[in-house]
Design goal:
The longest helix is centred in the first third of the chain and has 31 residues, at 21-51. Helix 1 (21-51) packs antiparallel against helix 2 (57-84), helix 1 packs across helix 3 (93-99) and helix 2 runs antiparallel to helix 5. The protein has one domain: Ferritin, core subunit, four-helix bundle (Ferritin). Helices cover 71% and strands 0% of the residues. It is built from 5 helices and no strands. The chain has helices at residues 21-51, 57-84, 93-99, 111-138, 142-166. Fe (ii) ion (FE2) binds next to loops.
Length: 167
């Protein structure tokens, strides 16, 4: 949920981007949610990579590795952008769980169930990152907007590839 009132406070390392501080605060909140979502999906994608079984094991194992590596890289870029904007980054399981829309369960499911969950999660994040990119657009933060738009494409591609595997 994106609110109009920023909940985070800027730190001293704030870069002068020329963007209105209140807008940056809203954007930092959106980016913190993006970090929590990306971390949660990273963890869930790893779970599938590790636990998948069946005739498509190798393909799913390799595909999910490519996806979790990309999520890990994106996570770092998103977090470092928050720091560049002068805000602290959440980095705890509890905070991630509280602000992410991705449910990460430890119970091992069937391979098809895990794939279906990852498809739904990637589709949900593509939509959510569209909202986040709109916050960046409102703040006229072109760099962050571009980064977030890139993530929409990444999540849509992930969903497509996982669907193709599922058949
Ligand atoms: Fe591995």
């Amino acid at each position: 949920m994106i609110t109009n009132e920023p909940t985070h406070t800027a730190t001293v390392e704030t870069v002068d981007t020329g963007i209105d501080q209140a807008m940056i605060g809203r954007l930092a909140d959106a980016l913190c949610q993006a970090v929590a979502d990306t971390f949660s999906l990273y963890l869930k994608t790893l779970g599938t990579h590790w636990n998948v079984v069946g005739p498509n094991f190798y393909g799913i194992h390799k595909l999910t590795q490519k996806q979790y590596e990309d999520l890990n890289e994106a996570l770092d870029e998103l977090a470092e952008r928050i720091r560049g904007l002068g805000y602290p980054v959440p980095a705890g399981f509890t905070e991630f769980r509280d602000i992410s829309i991705i449910e990460v369960e430890s119970a091992i499911k069937s391979s098809d169930e895990m794939l279906r969950a990852l498809i739904a999660d990637n589709e949900a994040l593509a939509k959510r990152f569209r909202e986040f990119s709109n916050v960046a657009a409102d703040a006229q933060d072109k760099f962050t907007e571009d980064m977030l738009i890139g993530r929409i494409g990444a999540h849509e591609k992930n969903a497509w590839m996982l669907k193709a595997v599922l058949g």
